[in-house]
Write a structure and sequence with these properties.
The complex is a heterodimer of chains A (301) and B (214).
Chain A lengths: L1 H19 L4 H10 L1 H19 L1 H5 L5 H4 L6 H12 L9 E4 L5 E4 L5 E4 L4 E5 L2 E11 L9 E4 L2 E5 L3 E6 L3 E8 L1 E6 L6 E4 L2 E6 L4 E6 L12 E8 H11 L3 E4 L7 E7 L6 H9 L2 E5 L2 E5 L5
Parallel strand pairs in A: 5-6, 15-18
Antiparallel strand pairs in A: 1-4, 2-3, 3-5, 4-5, 5-8, 6-7, 7-10, 8-9, 9-12, 10-11, 12-13, 14-16, 17-18
Helix pairs in contact in A: 1-3, 2-3
Chain B lengths: L7 H6 L4 H9 L1 H12 L2 H17 L8 H27 L24 H18 L3 H12 L4 H8 L3 H20 L9 H5 L15
Helix pairs in contact in B: 3-4, 3-5, 4-5, 5-6, 6-9, 7-8, 7-9, 8-9
The chains are: A alpha+beta (301), B mainly alpha (214).
């Protein structure tokens, strides 16, 4: 048993020298030749090194107990990220960067070239490459081998591999659409990680614990930046939530409509009335309701 | 050992690919000897040498201070690439992350594999392999591994964080490597001695069924 540890230690030592560019290749060759076990041990060190480097971001998230830390709380999130950092023994105090929007969009540019368009009424907390999102955002992330960004939203952890993608996060649902590249999605309630590739969209509903993946609607990522919202077979509740965020006023929905789905495009620019358009397209009624409107089954008063 | 090697300073000023191929050719005996030791298989060593030659024909690096070291490092990386590709093949053939049967417990529908590029699925499988292998590590080894390889702390910083000695850190890392080596080997990677394993068709066992020969 001790012999094996010595071999592993030597292999690690050789790898450190290789990585540092200071290795004596002839001496390394002789060590590899000395014992078949040496070569096998080094093989594993080099391979695990490469794998861990490439998956570093995804691995950085604490897996099993994480759903306790990354709960959807208002005040809990920052404390949770600090707690996680303390558990990992980070020698420095993390710098938390918070962006929160009201009625307008915020464009966020990070030093590494990442660009984030934060939608109205949304909140992004950032600690280095770890982020927590409430609301919607479009991400443009340049690829950096060995560095991954991890975004927590609605109970899911999304790790990017250098991509363009959009997250729409509500307390109990999340929509993720990828335009370029691919992202990995994990979560406490997912049996296994899901990889979402360009042209695919994911819908996660925490309540019924349902996750579905389908073809993305072309041009849908960040469509709200262009004055329209496009859907294909989207649960009506999500459309209504988007209208509230991006449209002129609050929209609510009668519970009886929860199973309805909508396909189509709604114009949300100034001068349009998307809730009225939606009601017409779906044959529903729209009534004033407090500070906004409410969608109802047709014929109701 | 053999004839004096070309003036490395002159080589460094040459940027055309000829320069690196000439360096490889000048050191072919040593490089092939390294590759034999690294892969444990003379046939594979020859393959990698040929592959390396072709790549060096097309690469256009900037000025290189030590062309011989560059060539050795490239050879080492090529072997790593092959090991990683073999691991991915093994994961794919073993049907890791078997398709979920429609049901209530974990109802998920993954992206259509016919559309997803190979790399996306392979990365997912690699990540799962890593997570499960790491979950099986003893606590100290796991913590040292995370601090060092994920958080990027040096051995000295890991020692300070864990309040143990540097040699304690090195032992933890060695334990971690021993476990990871076994986890990777059980999925078919491990050098020429295990190449027969690579040829065996995947058993289709789930990742958690990996044999643990403790």
């Amino acid at each position: 048993m001790n012999d094996n540890l010595a071999t592993e230690q030597a292999a690690l030592d050789w790898q450190a020298q290789v990585q540092a560019g200071s290795v004596d290749w002839d001496a390394f060759t002789r060590w590899l030749e000395a014992d078949r076990d040496h070569a096998d041990a080094y093989d594993a060190v080099a391979l695990s090194d490469a794998l861990m480097a490439d998956h570093r971001g995804a691995l950085a998230t604490v897996s099993q107990p994480s759903h306790r830390f990354w709960a959807w709380g208002t005040s809990g999130v920052l404390a949770a990220s600090l707690a996680v950092a303390a558990w990992l023994g980070a020698p420095h105090a993390p710098a938390i960067d918070i962006h929160e929007t009201q009625a307008s969009v915020e464009q966020i540019a990070l030093a590494d070239g990442t660009h984030i368009a934060l939608a109205p009424h949304s909140r992004l907390e950032r600690d280095g490459t770890a982020m927590v999102l409430r609301g919607d955002a479009v991400f443009d992330v340049p690829h950096r081998p060995g560095r991954e960004m991890v975004i927590t939203a609605a109970g899911l952890k999304i790790s990017d591999i250098g991509t363009r993608f959009e997250i729409r996060a509500a307390p109990d649902t999340a929509r993720l659409t990828v335009t370029e590249g691919e992202v990995a999605v994990t979560g406490a309630s997912l049996a296994q990680p899901v990889m979402l590739v360009a042209g695919r969209a994911l819908l996660y509903e925490a309540g019924p614990a349902r996750l579905s993946v389908a073809a993305a609607v072309p041009g849908a990522v960040g469509d709200w930046q262009s004055g329209h919202l496009t859907y294909r077979d989207a649960p009506l509740g999500l459309v209504v939530a988007d209208l509230t965020r991006y449209g002129p006023q609050q929209v609510r929905m009668d519970a009886a409509l929860a199973t309805r789905r909508f396909s189509g495009t709604l114009l949300i620019d100034h001068g349009h009335a998307p809730a009225r358009d939606l009601a017409q397209l779906m044959g529903l009624a729209l009534r004033p309701d407090g500070d906004g409107d409410r969608l109802l089954p047709a014929g109701q008063r | 050992m053999s004839a004096p090697s070309p003036d490395s300073a002159m080589m460094a000023r040459q940027s055309p690919p000829d320069g690196l191929c000439a360096v490889l050719f000048a050191h072919r005996g040593e490089v092939i000897r390294f590759l034999c030791a690294r892969t444990g298989d003379p046939g594979e060593a020859e393959d990698v040498y040929q592959d390396l030659w072709i790549r060096l024909l097309h690469v256009r690096p900037g000025p290189i201070g030590n062309p011989r070291a560059y060539v050795f490092r490239a050879a080492n990386n090529l072997v790593l690439d092959r090991r990683r590709a073999a691991l991915r093949n093994r994961l794919r053939d073993g049907h890791w992350l078997a398709e979920e049967a429609p049901g209530d417990r974990h109802p998920e529908e993954r992206a259509d594999p016919a559309i997803a590029p190979d790399d996306a699925l392979a990365l997912q499988q690699e990540l799962t392999l890593l997570r499960i292998a790491m979950a099986a590590l003893p606590a100290g080894a796991l913590r040292a591994l995370r601090l060092h390889r994920i958080d990027g702390l040096s051995h000295a910083e890991v020692a300070a964080t864990m309040q143990i000695s540097r040699s304690g850190v090195e032992k933890h890392m060695a334990v971690a490597m021993k476990h990871l080596r076994r986890a990777l080997a059980n999925c078919g990677v491990g050098g020429a001695a295990a190449s027969d394993d690579l040829e065996r068709p995947g058993s289709g066992e789930p990742l958690v069924g990996c044999k643990d020969e403790r």
